[in-house]
Structures are given as structure tokens and as C-alpha cells.
């Protein structure tokens, strides 16, 4: 589905099941996951346009309210923006990813305050945020378990 230069995908193709649902924008469902997994697709105008539209959707959606993690959180969406920065060469995408990364840190702090402990999971916890921060500091765009490890 496209809207004003942004593109997202429902997690299923059955039109009856997706009717009226707002599609998720996170790594495990939607535009962020598409960008992360297809960032190394061939450099053609069609691929470039598709991935730029998906990254625009991620940015417009803003930080994920569910939390900070890579799978269905702000860190995963930030990785998508890092991938778009790497692919396009446009610094704006890295700046946006860094803004999401700082928001993810605030989400980690808030979760610690609320629950009194950290969440050590890579894909749904603090470890994924740490990996994102490392990529931001190093100027990279690698996604744990997909590009690293």
C-alpha cells in the first residue's frame, strides 16, 4: 500500500483479513523489515524507489510505541533507516536513525524504571539497542544475526 511517497505492507495478502486494519511498521511486520532484508538488492531505479518509499514510511510512523527492541521496536526501525542511509548515501537517513536510536535509549530507561530490571534479549530487549548504538557510532548499518554473528 502506498501513500504520498511512503510504502508499507500488510503481513498477509488476504484482502478480507486486512480490510480496515492499520498495517504495522516494524521489523517483523512491514516496511522496516523490507528495507533491512532488501537493502542489498540490485541498484535499479525500481528497487531504489521501493526502498526509499519504505524508509519514508518508517520515518513517518515515528518511534514504535511497543518498546525499544529490534523485532517490533524502535531499534529495528532505526536499523532500517541506517540501511537506507548506506544504500542511498544520503546523510539525512543516518541522522533520522540516530534520532530513533536516542528515543530507543529513552525507552530502555523507562522500561528499567517501570520494571526494575533490564531485558537481555537480542531481538526484543536491550541487547538489540546496544547493537544499534554500536552501528551508529561506527557508521555502519549491520543488523545482528542477519549481517553479523
Low-confidence stretches: none
Structural shape: globular
- What portion of residues is helical? 55-70%
Strand neighbour order, sheet with most strands = 1-2
Straight-line N-to-C gap: 34 Å
Count of DSSP strands: 2
Number of domains: 1
Radius of gyration, CA atoms, in whole angstroms: 15 Å
Keywords, please?
mainly alpha, single chain, two-stranded antiparallel sheet, globular, 149 residues
Describe the protein in words.
Helix 3 (45-61) runs antiparallel to helix 4 (74-88), helix 4 packs parallel to helix 6 and helix 5 packs antiparallel against helix 6 (126-138). Strand 1 and strand 2 form a beta hairpin. The chain has one domain (2-138). Helix content is 55%, strand content 3%. The chain is an all-alpha fold and 149 residues long. A two-stranded antiparallel sheet has the order 1-2. The protein has helices at 15-18, 31-38, 45-61, 74-88, 91-115, 126-138, and strands spanning 2-3, 6-7. The protein is globular and about 45 Å long. The chain is built from 6 helices and 2 strands; from the N terminus they run ββαααααα. The mean pLDDT is 93.
SSE topology:
Layout: E1 2-3, E2 6-7, H1 15-18, H2 31-38, H3 45-61, H4 74-88, H5 91-115, H6 126-138
Antiparallel strand pairs: 1-2
Helix pairs in contact: 2-3, 2-4, 3-4, 4-5, 4-6, 5-6
Concise summary:
The chain contains six helices and two strands. It is mostly helical.
Amino acid at each position: 500500500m502506498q501513500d504520498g511517497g511512503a510504502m508499507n505492507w500488510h503481513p498477509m495478502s488476504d484482502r478480507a483479513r486486512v480490510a480496515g486494519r492499520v498495517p504495522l511498521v516494524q521489523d517483523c511486520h512491514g516496511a522496516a523489515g523490507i528495507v533491512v532484508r532488501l537493502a542489498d538488492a540490485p541498484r535499479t531505479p525500481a528497487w531504489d524507489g521501493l526502498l526509499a518509499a519504505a524508509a519514508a514510511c518508517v520515518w513517518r510512523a515515528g518511534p514504535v510505541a511497543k518498546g525499544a527492541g529490534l523485532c517490533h521496536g524502535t531499534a529495528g526501525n532505526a536499523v532500517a533507516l541506517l540501511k537506507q542511509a548506506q544504500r542511498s548515501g544520503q546523510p539525512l537517513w543516518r541522522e533520522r536513525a540516530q534520532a530513533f536510536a536516542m528515543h530507543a535509549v529513552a525507552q530502555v530507561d523507562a522500561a528499567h524504571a517501570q520494571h526494575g530490571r533490564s531485558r537481555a534479549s537480542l531481538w526484543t530487549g536491550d541487547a538489540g539497542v546496544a547493537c544499534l548504538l554500536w552501528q551508529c557510532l561506527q557508521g555502519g548499518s549491520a543488523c545482528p544475526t542477519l549481517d553479523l554473528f
